[in-house]
Every structure is written in structure tokens, then in C-alpha cells.
Amino acid sequence: MSAADLLIEARDRILDPAHWLRGQYHDDSKDRFCAVGSIRESGQHFKAADYNKAIEMLYKAALEVGVCTEKHSSPICVNDHLGHEATMTMFDRSIRLAKEAEEGIA
Ligand SMILES: [Zn+2]
Fold first, then answer.
1. Widest CA span of the chain, in angstroms?
2. 17 near 88, Cβ under 8 Å?
3. Taking 60 as the threshold, does the pLDDT of residue 106 lie above it?
């Protein structure tokens, strides 16, 4: 279990756009999550260190994915303003960053 594993689990939870949403961490039934909400959900059964690392990597990845028209870039902005495809790109990049960090490359 690692930060990369957490990010993979969180991404897979919202891989299907039907299980993804904007503007809130999750819906009442926890059937749909945003990027950060999904990481928080996975964080409940991962170590705090893995959760913190996962969030750090997601923020780094968000910077690389791009900025919205309001010229800011954060995981919530990518999720809410740039959409599902950009959110998946952000997750894929964050997973790569986490794996690189775990292997001592970064
Ligand atoms: Zn924005």
C-alpha cells in the first residue's frame, strides 16, 4: 500500500464519468465523487503519510495539466473547471509522480 496505490484506487472509483461529479466531494449516497473527494474516501483506509503524499502529488500534477480561464490551477479547479478527461490526465500524471518518488527517481 502506497500513495500510488491510493491514487490508483481513487482514480478507478471515478474512471466512469457516471461516478464522477463537480462542485462537491461526493453525493449523498457516495455513488459519485470528485477527484479530491475520491482521494479523501480512499484515505480512510490508507496511512496518513500515503494520503498526504497522494494529495501532494495531485497538486503537482494539477499544475502540469493546465489553468482554467481564471488562471488558477488546483485539483479542484481541474475537476470543476476543466472536466473529467483533464481530471483523468491529472490522476495519471500524479500516479506517475508518486511511483517515481517511491523509486527515488524524483
Ligand atoms: Zn479554475
1. 40
2. no
3. no
Q: Determine the distance separating the centroid of ligand 1 and the alpha carbon of 77, expressed in angstroms.
A: 4
Selection from 44, 48, 26, 46 nearest residue 35 by Cα: 26
The grid coordinates listed for 83 are: 472536466
- Name the residue range of residue 29's domain: 3-102
Three-class SS string for 38-71? Answer: HHHHHHCCCCHHHHHHHHHHHHHHHHHHCCCCCC
Q: pLDDT tens digits for 33-52?
A: 999 999 999 999 999 999 99
| CA 93 to ligand 1 centroid distance, Å | 19
Q: How many CB atoms lie within 10 A of CB 75?
A: 23
All residues at 6 or more sequence positions from 76 whose CB lies less than 8 Å from its CB, including other chains: 34, 35, 36
Report how many domains make up the chain.
1
